Amino acid sequence: MTESQRERPLSADELLDIVDEHDEVVGQARRGEAMAKRLRHRCVFVLARREDGRIFVHRRTPAKLVFPSRYDMFVGGVVGAGESYDDAARREAEEELGVTGLEQPRPLFKFLFDTPQHTWWSMVYEVTCPDEVSPQAEEVAWCTFLTEDQLRRRLPEWDWVPDGLAAWERLEDRRQSRR
User: Fold this and answer.
1) Which CATH entry fits the domain spanning 3-178: 2.40.100.10, 3.30.565.10, 1.10.3720.10, 3.90.79.10?
2) Per DSSP, which regions of 79-118 are E strands?
3) What pLDDT is stored for residue 111 in this prediction?
4) What was the pLDDT predicted at 2?
5) Radius of gyration over alpha carbons of the chain, in Å?
6) Residue 134 carries which DSSP code?
7) Which residue has the higher pLDDT, 179 or 30?
8) 123-140 average pLDDT score
9) What's residue 71's pLDDT?
10) Which positions ≥6 away from 40 have C-beta within 8 Å?
11) Is the pTM value of this prediction over 0.70?
12) What gap in Å lies between CA 166 and CA 68, rounded to an integer?
């Protein structure tokens, strides 16, 4: 085990704030317990774009606790206990992309992802990232940058994480309603 692995808790051991239907903290639990018992918590989703507008798209590793080996157009993850959405967005984006010094991701909207298996408040962000990234091997099995049109063409072809797909659909709906 490396020193960084000792310092960073295992994914299932991360302590999370448990929240109610209004996103108010009502308790805390370890991530593994929150997932096993379907306890509502908080997550961040960051759409990472290069300057040319291409979006970072990746396939999650098979070792992921939730939605292993599926594709995602967002980087992100759970918000730790006592952590703000904004702080989690920057931390998660820098960790997954393998970069430092990212600008603060811009908040876009929040929604409740709620299925019979999972429930979490989801804060969606966007950030400009460098052209060169070094994705975290524990999180990312494969990656590329796609244009929005390329991404849209792959939506029916690839097995996407359901929460990321829900965030993408809401983002697209918001864009359509502004036109």
Assistant:
1) 3.90.79.10
2) 106-114
3) 97
4) 31
5) 16
6) -
7) 30
8) 94
9) 98
10) 18, 19, 20, 21, 119, 120, 121
11) yes
12) 17
